Amino acid sequence: MPLMVHGLLQTEDYARAIDRLALNSTPESVERQVQIRMGRQQNVWTRDEPPTLEFVLDEAALRRPVGSRATMHAQLLHLIELSDRCQLQVIPLRGGAHLGPLGAITIFEFPEELHSPVPYVEGQAGNLYLEKSAELARANLTDNRLTAAALSPADSAELIARLPAEDPVMIRLEPGS
Hints:
This is DUF5753 domain-containing protein. By secondary structure, this protein is α+β, with helices and mostly antiparallel strands.
């Protein structure tokens, strides 16, 4: 779980601000990456039968300013809107350390007759699909522990909605500021 909002949940401005941080980024490469990410989102969120998606985010990712205040405000509103279409859970800061900072894990699950689950790990050194049963077991255990450490989806949505008023960095967060 990186300390940023997952790519499928990012607004365009948030994605742009994140992509500008990449080493060797150029304005052209940033725009290309942002458009690819937005296209992927469009493909997922506009399907007649979208996949079941579950996300666990660290509260620090929601409190860390990315881009302008307007960017963060729009990102938080976007998360609230998306919480009706996916399971979104937040691991609160008060919960202390957890396994998430070791890297983002996505577990792709398919109908049993098509394929067994496939963990996908994202990290600074690259991305990796895991295929061994022991790797899948570790990924599932990590996912289960992160989900257990997180607030319920309803409590997570309440936390996200309260963030602008609670966080000194975003205390006067208003669109356009």
